[in-house]
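Issue: copy button drops trailing tokens. Both records pasted manually instead:
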Amino acid sequence: MSALITLDEESIMAWAEANGVPGDYHDVVMSQQARSMVQSYVDKLNLDLGRWEQIKRFIILPRDLTIEDGEITPSLKLKRKVVIDKYKDQLDSLYTD
């Protein structure tokens, strides 16, 4: 299974400051240090999941999904088709690497 992951800006920036990761939000979430941190949480999550449920590959998005960009509804439900279309190239790359 693959996943698109977004990170809470306030939390990740506090983490970055505590861990010496420089840059603005975009730089931090795209850093190898952030990816390693997220990977450790994914690994912990996967321990309690069946093999077919486990997240094997993921992409950290440089921003949250928003109502304004049409990616979620006003009731915060994901518009799956819109998100898949918008991030098609990144999702395809998960299966071609």
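Record 2 (pasted manually too):
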Amino acid sequence: MSYIVGLTGGIGSGKSTIADLFSALNVPVIDADIVARKVVEKGSPLLSEIVAHFGQNILTEAGELDRAALRKLVFNDDKQKHWLNDLLHPAIRTEMQHQLAVQTAPYVIWVVPLLIENNLVEMCDRVLVVDVSPSVQLARAAKRDNHSDELIQKIMATQVSREERLKSADDVIYNEANFSDNGAHLKQQVLTLHQLYLELAEEKCNERNN
């Protein structure tokens, strides 16, 4: 199994942007959100269960899951959120564990928004946090998802605080919008960590073989 770097951060922090930069360096990326979409794709048993529970209104015209509509439902109802999590989390975890197990690259980036909240840190060799201020999170997420500030704040409230997230970090990428030439700054941070993770992966491989 590859060395596992868990990549996490609050909503709107820029996890996908950072993951894409690692991917450009030919590092495998396993994204929990992509896995979550896979297990509820059109025609899947889990999607049928969700429709039976919530009704046809959570489907798009194409018959796929309307994730935005479902998000609004569950974030306004803790009981429904727990029902959905109990249904999906085991399937998502199983699929992620499979994808991690078959990796052969020196290291893999494992993107999990709720890495800390769902007690998955212990599955990682190292934790990388993408850090921004709560105000930047709110502005970015509201613009990206076209959600109200109120809904974004509710989502943020379900995640650990910035302080708690940073306590769990081995490494931090700062992704504030006020950096000059932010793209180059992010790339340099990723390149530096890329070299570090290659070295750490090699050390772990040598320890395992000795």
